[in-house]
Amino acid sequence: MTRRVLPLLLMVTVVVGLFPAVSVAEPDENGIYPMVFPVQGPNYYTDTFGACRGSGCSRIHEGQDIMTYGVKGVPVVAAVAGTIGWMHNQQGGQCCALEVNHDDGWSTVYIHLNNDTQNPDGSYSDDGQGYGIAPGLAPGMRVEAGQLIGWVGDSGNAQGVTPHLHFELRDPSDVPYNAYESLLAAQPLPDQPDPCPEETECDTAAFQDNGGRFT
Predict the structure, then answer these.
(1) Share of the chain above pLDDT 70, in %
(2) How do residues 102-149 score in pLDDT, each as one tens digit?
(3) What is the three-state SS of the chain?
(4) At residue 66, what are phi and psi to the nearest 5 degrees?
(5) DSSP label at 158?
(6) 77 vs 36: CA distance, rounded Å
(7) I need a surface site. Which of 14, 33, 49, 189 has the fewest CB within 10 A?
(8) What is the pTM (predicted TM-score) of this model?
(9) How many Cα atoms sit within 13 Å of 105 on the Cβ side?
(10) 80: pLDDT confidence band, cut at 50, 70 and 90?
């Protein structure tokens, strides 16, 4: 019996050694989880984590609403590097939202991305036929902090409400964590170089994709 048990114990030891423990990050002593600010345009927000939602406070707000002064189409970037988890990306149906799973076990959620068609003058219809997730993204794909993942809108249960990004931060147990202080401390993207410096002549080109969005 001893000769049978020892090889088994040795095998278990070797297997465990091949898979080292995964380190899990924690917010710092001030409760701040490091991230890039997810909305790259004019915005405002207050701490609405835990606020009542639904009829008779039937549910509790599990994130922060980042408002964009009534403007749709403001760029949304990944706040933290990771892998795309679930996506609601059915154009004209259940659209548009996604989750990014971080390398440390935490995750961020981006809801109410744009689902309306952009008009030639830059305004948006309210037809639900647009697509507000960045082209080429799919579950399982890697994204880096600051990478474009979509655009602010009013999809889902935000129809008829001022456009905004519903942003959630969740711990490794998938428990919502108040991201307010982390957003206040979030890092902006580095300034981008001016594509048309002064005293130079530049042309402007516009591209309209199959979702009706102008770039």
Answers:
(1) 67
(2) 999 999 999 999 998 899 988 888 888 888 999 999 999 999 999 999
(3) CHHHHHHHHHHHHHHHHHCCCCCCCCCCCCCCCCCECCECCCCECCCCCCCEECCCCCEECCCEEEECCCCCCCEEECCCCEEEEEEEECCCCCEEEEEEEECCCCEEEEECECCCCECCCCCECCCCCCCCECCCCCCCCEECCCCEEEEEECCHHHCCCCCEEEEEEECCCCCEECCHHHHHCCECCCCCCCCCCCCCCCCCCCCECCCCCEC
(4) -100, 110
(5) G
(6) 8
(7) 14
(8) 0.74
(9) 12
(10) very high
Lowest mean pLDDT among 64-78, 96-110, 192-206: 192-206
| Amino acid in position 201 | E
The CA distance from 133 to 211, in Å, is 10
